[in-house]
Amino acid sequence: MRASGGAKRAGIVVLALAVLAAITWAVLWFTPVATVDEVRVEGVVNGDAAAMSEATGIATGEKLARVDTDAAARAVAAQPWVEKVTVDRSWPSAITVEVVEHAPVLHIRATDGEHLFNADGVEFLVAPPPPGSVEMVRVPRVENPAPGKLDPDPATVRAVLDVLGALPERVRGEVARVDAPGPTEISLNLHDGREIYFGSSDRASEKGRAAEIVMDREGQRWNVSNPVAPSVRN
């Protein structure tokens, strides 16, 4: 059965487009057009954009078509502030590095500086904590920490993160540090010197609402471990 004229024409068009694409790619690959003039690093707040650009290993003047974007992304991902990264060609003359940084939620002070932890409890860097990070104190440690790490007890860190994540915005903004000698012994120390004892992270949202209520009451030390009956703590 003969192919229709329309089908033949469609086949010719597809073939022509494929040939054109191959020629275009060959021009970009073998001739000195579309070279890298700029490596743009976007999304950086706390990290070093210049170091990330350098980590790509991409040189000015390199042919854009020959850039190994996967290798560049792997290299940038090794930078301490980087949680996720994509590297793409931005025709005709740039490389765009899009970075998502770790968001420091907690930090622990040590002799070598402040160890920063993200929202997943990952210890990712020793550096001054940015605004919004909450200090953890009295956190138990694992017996054999990895080199350069504090490796606090994961269950305790997870419980602290669950508590902080459940707090009303008003309460969260007043938390100066978290005292956490264990996952069931969590206390919030506020900027004004008051203390709110949570106990465990169970019913964290209810405890957070109770904490917001007691913030408007007299008393320096409160217990909201039973959120339906918060009490002054001796």
TrEMBL record:
Any single Gene Ontology cellular-component annotation: plasma membrane
Entry-linked Pfam families: POTRA_1
Keyword terms: Cell cycle, Cell division, Cell membrane, Membrane, Transmembrane, Transmembrane helix
Residue ranges occupied by any POTRA domain in the UniProt entry: 34-102
Subcellular location: Membrane
One of the protein's GO biological processes: cell division
Major location (coarse): membrane
PANTHER family named among the record's database cross-references: CELL DIVISION PROTEIN DIVIB (PTHR37820), CELL DIVISION PROTEIN FTSQ (PTHR37820:SF1)
Record's protein name: Cell division protein FtsQ
